[in-house]
């Protein structure tokens, strides 16, 4: 299947004759493509299984590299017998042209190198819970160009690997990422039993948030100080992955609303009033 001008002209002038004269080359090309496709599928599947059993990150960047190498090997096999192109000559030409191309692809090259640096250095791996420049989520994959981070709300952030190598990155434990708070104020007085109040708040909140609570992380009550209205505190809540923190806040606020020991209208109703209005 020579790609010279005479071969191209023969293809257009007499396709049947061209097919007859190049039948063996076409068959060889098809066989190589089919075998390569099967090998790529088997090898990539085997790599995924093998990576899952080791401490090597099972990111797609490794599998993609192997896939490309297999197809490059297949191309080198068919170049000379099918297309009449000497692989050495082609590589030499690509080497000369590659210098110019590399300038246009410098960002892509930086991202590929950055991706390998992230994975081999185990900076980030699929499944890690990370915070990057204030955005928090779980690392889904590290590809040629990007690291994919999925936020709690389901949004996917595609962060260039070269940027990730220079950005501030923080690995977070699950309870910290899942935590949200509900502030409250307890009526002051000498007979205030903070332990009993904390237990009542936890019982109410836990009853309404048990199905969305992070396992083994029940609500906590922390008292933080004092104000003219009473004792200041917070309920610390830990939410399951995939559940919005606002959903947890809503349920918890509804659970403690109306509790008689809480100050729930600390602001004066009239700006001219000097005394705060406190109601249950």
UniProtKB/TrEMBL annotation:
One GO cellular component term of this record is:
plasma membrane
* Major site of localization recorded for this protein: membrane
| Domain called Mechanosensitive ion channel transmembrane helices 2/3: residue spans | 64-106
Q: Where in the cell is it found?
A: Cell membrane
- Name the keywords, alphabetized: Cell membrane, Membrane, Transmembrane, Transmembrane helix
- Similarity comment: family membership: Belongs to the MscS (TC 1.A.23) family.
Protein name, please? Transporter
């Amino acid at each position: 299947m020579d790609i010279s001008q005479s071969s191209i002209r023969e293809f257009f002038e007499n396709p049947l004759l061209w097919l007859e004269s190049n039948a063996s080359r076409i068959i060889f090309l098809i066989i190589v493509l089919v075998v390569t496709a099967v090998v790529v599928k088997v090898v990539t599947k085997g790599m995924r299984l093998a990576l899952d059993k080791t401490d090597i990150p099972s990111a797609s960047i490794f599998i993609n590299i192997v896939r490309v190498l297999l197809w490059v090997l297949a191309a080198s096999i068919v170049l000379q017998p099918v297309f009449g192109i000497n692989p050495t000559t082609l590589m030499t030409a690509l080497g000369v042209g590659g210098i110019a191309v590399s300038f246009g692809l410098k960002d892509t090259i930086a991202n590929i190198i950055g991706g390998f640096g992230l994975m081999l250095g185990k900076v980030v791996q699929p499944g890690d819970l990370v915070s990057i420049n204030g955005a928090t989520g779980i690392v889904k994959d590290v590809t040629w160009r990007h690291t994919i981070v999925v936020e709690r709300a389901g949004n996917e952030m595609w962060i260039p690997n070269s940027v990730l190598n220079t950005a501030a990155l923080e690995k977070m434990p699950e309870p910290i990422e899942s935590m949200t708070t509900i502030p409250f104020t307890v009526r002051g007085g000498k007979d205030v039993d903070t332990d009993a109040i904390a237990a009542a708040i936890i019982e109410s909140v836990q009853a309404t948030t048990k199905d969305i609570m992070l396992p083994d992380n029940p609500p906590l009550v922390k008292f933080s100080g004092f104000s003219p209205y009473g004792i200041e505190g917070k309920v610390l809540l830990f939410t399951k992955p995939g559940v919005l923190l606002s959903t947890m806040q809503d349920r918890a606020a509804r659970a403690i609303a109306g509790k008689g020991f809480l100050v729930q209208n600390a602001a004066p109703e009239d700006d001219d009033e000097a005394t705060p209005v406190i109601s249950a």
